[in-house]
Amino acid sequence: MIFVQFVILLAMILIGSRMKGIGLGVMGMIGLFIFVLFFKMTPADPPISVLLIILAIVTTAATLQAAGGLDYLVSIAERIIRKNPSQITFIAPFTTYFLCLFAGTAHIVYSLLPIIAEVSAKQRIRPERPLSVSVIASHLAITGSPMSAASASLVAILAYSSASIDIMKICIPAALCGIFVSILAVRKKGLELDKDPIFLEKMKDPEFASSMDPSHMENGTTQYKPAPGAKIAVAIFGFAILLIIFFGAFPAFVPHVGGGPSFSVNADGTINLTSLIIMITLSASAFIMLITKTSAVKVAKMSLFTSMATAVVSVLGVVWMSATFMLANEAVIEHTFKDIVTVYPWTFAIALFLMGALTFSQAATTRTIMPMGLALGITSPHLLAMFPAVNGDFLLPGYPTLVAAIDFDRTGSTKIGKFVVNHSFMIPGLVAIAVTIFVGFILSGILL
After folding, report:
1. What percent of the chain has pLDDT over 90?
2. How many distinct structural domains can be found in the chain?
3. What is the pTM of this model?
4. Three-state secondary structure call for residue 127
């Protein structure tokens, strides 16, 4: 019976992911309804904490966007990338990583992709190289940022005070190693532009050839003027990040309110970190609006804010369905896999990676699979080391950041292969994830 249920689970995820948008969430609800109606499963608790975290964090990021803070951050990144264009294959991925790490979202990379494509093409560096690694770097930043929904979800699951600090201690240096090795892996990938038949064919068009002239290199940063409150918004956003890190590093300073355990209060009477993250981020959003005079109506119209609705519906549907399936089959799953993951903990990373590829959501994957890891007896340090595996969303080239990178590369070097999976992001993605997890295991053994 469990196999039939598992097929239904996978079918709902696959259909939902092909529908895009909120498709994953609504199909998850159909799967949940089937489980309850026909298999008489008891519904698991819905992921309320994760949904509230997503709502709070994305609202704050949208407020930063409305105040001009994201544009200001992008202008800084653009200046760094354009400063040494000949080394763009090395500079662009690390610049992208730190920008997304600070912002807590990979979607800010859309602003950098056309810059990376333009600079590399005019330097006759195959754009596929910096573009592919930069996209992967933007995803890895999600599993190291204290302002990402995925990291906050893992903090809630692990439920110990220094979890957010441990995520940063393990995942950030491990990701930097993974990005560096992936850059080396693609440094000579593909033909040089001057020998690429697709590019040479395009160069026969005088207009295209003129646009590829290095002497016509644009410098967008010279014309950019930050919005009046942009720098203040970035400062407030940065302070919110530091405050979250502070409470994670020094739990003695976490407010003690007494009372019994509840949604917001731990058993010892302290406010839990999940609630603190929600309070801090939404307070930061309020301060940005008040101090920079950013309209609340404008925040609600930002692309990041509208994307939050999609994320909330998707996480609610697929996580609730998956949690119900695992609750009903917990004994079978534990009996089948516990011995394997006890001896070879790294094998759990495969489940994380594949679920990430199916759901296209790091937060949904974290909330769906990580509790199973705890149930199977995998230690917190090992779960932290494997956390970056949730970035399997590059496996199938349908994720928006991958599609955008392909579209922005006018040379045609960044592409999807004949067999779909042999696309430009496969090699840097697999290398980066594998190295990041490997280094994560080493660091977790040393630091935790």
Report:
1. 36
2. 1
3. 0.80
4. coil
Q: What pLDDT sits at residue 133? A: 97
227 residue type, one letter: A
Q: Which two tokens stand for residue 312?
A: 């909330």
Measure Cα distances from 328 to 48, 249, 333, 397 in Å.
Answer: 20, 37, 10, 33
Range of the domain at 262: 2-447
- The structure tokens listed for 338 are 């516990």
- 385 token code pair: 């080391």
Handedness of CA 175, 177, 182, 188 (dihedral sign): positive
The span from the CA of 36 to the CA of 41, in Å, is 5
Whether residue 181 has pLDDT greater than 90? yes
Tokens of 72: 């200001």
Give me 146's structure tokens.
Answer: 């204290």
Sheet strands (E) in 224-353: none
282 φ/ψ angles, rounded to the nearest 5 degrees: -70, -30
Let me know how long the chain is: 448
Cα–Cα distance, 441 to 43 (Å, whole number): 35
Q: Per residue in 414-447, pLDDT tens?
A: 888 777 788 899 999 999 999 999 999 999 999 9
Distances from the Cα of 71 to the Cα of 10, 67, 68, 140, 428, angstroms: 39, 9, 5, 21, 28
Task: Dump pLDDT digits (tens) for 52-64.
Answer: 887 888 899 899 9
The CA-CA-CA angle for residues 31, 36, 37, to 5°, reads 95
CA distance linking residue 198 with residue 203, whole number of Å: 9
Specify the amino acid at residue 402.
L
